[in-house]
């Protein structure tokens, strides 16, 4: 039985406080392929990305308080891949308004 691979786009606009960008579906493994943060504020902002590992009940930073220049973009995940197990959560926060776009390959269970 072959499982379907579904490409998903997850995004949030105007993020300033801890915001869930994506939650992996129950009983499915997903791969975070890319995550970009665009600064839409007038000044430099600091952005953080965390992965909540539901099975371990731990939060781990992919990046913490990384500066993003006004009008600039931070590619947090580009090239490498981050495995998200069932119900793992991708969260972003920033000190000023940012837009976030994530590309995900969902349902990669074999």
Summary of the model, kept short:
It contains no helices and eight strands. It is mostly beta strands.
Write the topology of this structure:
Blueprint: E1 6-15, E2 19-23, E3 30-39, E4 45-53, E5 58-68, E6 73-84, E7 89-94, E8 98-106
What does this structure look like?
The chain has 110 residues and is mainly β. It contains no helices and eight strands. The protein has strands spanning 6-15, 19-23, 30-39, 45-53, 58-68, 73-84, 89-94, 98-106. Strands 1-8-3-6 form a four-stranded antiparallel β-sheet, with no helix packed on it. 22% of the residues are buried.
What key attributes describe this structure?
110 residues, mainly beta, 4-stranded antiparallel β-sheet, 8 strands, 0% helix, globular
Number of beta-strand segments = 8
Total helices: the number is 0
Alpha-carbon distance between the two ends: 9 Å
Helix and strand run: EEEEEEEE
Rg, nearest Å: 14 Å
- Low-pLDDT segments, ≥5 res: none
